[in-house]
Amino acid sequence: MTADAVPPTQMIVDPRFLQVADRFFRMFRTRQQGGGALAAYLYGEPVLDIWAGWATRDRRWAHDTVALSFSTGKGVASTVLHRLAERGLVKYDDPVAAYWPEFGAAGKEAITIRELMSHRAGLHRVRGLMPGPLDLLDSDAVAKALAAAPPDRRRLSGPGYHAVTYGNLVAEIACRVTGRTFPELVEQELAGPLGLREFWFRVPQNERRRLAPVFPRVNPLPSSWSATARVMSRLPGVRGIAEAGMAEGFDELMRSPSAHDAVMPGWNGVFSARALARMYGALANGGTLDGVRLLKEDTLDQVLEVQTRRRDYVLGIRPNWRLGYHPGWVALREQPLRSIGHYGFGGSGAFADLETGLSIAFVTNRLGSNLTTTIADARFPRLGGDAVSIARRAA
Question: Could you say which residues form the signal peptide (predicted)?
């Protein structure tokens, strides 16, 4: 069964994946739980495409609802750059400055694309990068500021998660080597070949009716965002999180409609679960889906290689970064080691497990479940764990 064989208004539940569907539907029983969508492919065939809950307090989640998915977009942006690398437009071990000369300022002349894609460029700081929060929406100004910024010295001892800046860096390289805008590249490299349009970093005005606004307000502590950020920026152990993700006013910016006017692939991607599962479905299936080759198998072999096993000085863990992705973290003792994907703040995420041929994607407007915070959310790891277990039995 191909995606085209089922009307987009009709849900898909392969009987083998009923356990996953049951868990998903239990997550969205009340308006307080918001809504979401879940989609999965197994060896190139759709096995789940379901949705539930509320897009707003008075509108149910529908087959075409989309949601802001934060860092989930990093995997999408990375896939675009890998497509360009296959055509020889960029090489992973070349300096970034070979394609973006201004980037070589302030001691960054030797930093490579490989290092940048594994969060070792030392440009994680978004706090203080721009004069005000709205300035973060000016991608040209952000690129100019990043090019002029000195790298953090901690990059020499380990990665530091570029929570917001990663997407701007990747997008600038892609635009420099092609002469096209990043939305044009996403359309050309992903949306067009995959036959789905919901890969948006700048949401078209005529599609914004489909958006499910995220909630609740974003703040890891009871105090204001500004006060919390100031305190965290001074505390060892969490200082990096404040530097990388807590720019002044960023909590309001991520809830503002103006966020959808900009191109910031590190955090402002808007997707459907169906589109994400389809992209990762190609990667999980040896790089192809429905006769379309997204990436070559030797590219996938390179992408799967762990680039650094060192502790990330922003996150405080060892993410084992791949080239633009992390592994699919799931609620299982035996993790899917041959997996690549990216999770987003508040719960959304997607990954491909090349061992089982499985891809799975989850989007939601509810930042964190009722029992967790907006930062540490276990919904997708549990859904992913169930799905990986089933795929292993099906293999």
Answer: none
* Residues making up the chain, counted from first to last: 395
In a domain, residue 254? The reply is yes
β-pairing verdict for 288-289 and 292-293: antiparallel
Residue 9 is predicted with a pLDDT of 85
**Residue 71 annotated in active site:** yes
CA angle 249, 128, 166 (to 5 degrees): 90
What pLDDT digit, counting tens, does each position of 172-189 carry?
Answer: 999 999 999 999 999 999
* Residue 392 and residue 356 in contact, taking contact as beta carbons nearer than 8 Å: yes
pLDDT at 372 over 50: no
Cβ proximity of 249 and 131 under 8 Å: no
* Residue range of the domain that includes 156: 65-350
Mean pLDDT, rounded, for 315-339: 97
Inform me whether the pLDDT recorded for 375 exceeds 90. Answer: no
pLDDT, average across residues 270-285: 98
Residue 380 lies in a domain: no
Q: How does residue 288 score in pLDDT terms, banded at 50, 70 and 90?
A: very high
Q: Which of 69, 71, 339, 348 is catalytic?
A: 71
Whole-angstrom Cα distance, residue 85 to residue 83? 5
Give the integer Cα–Cα distance in Å for 90 and 172: 12
DSSP letter for 150, please.
P
d(C-alpha 9, C-alpha 24), whole Å: 18
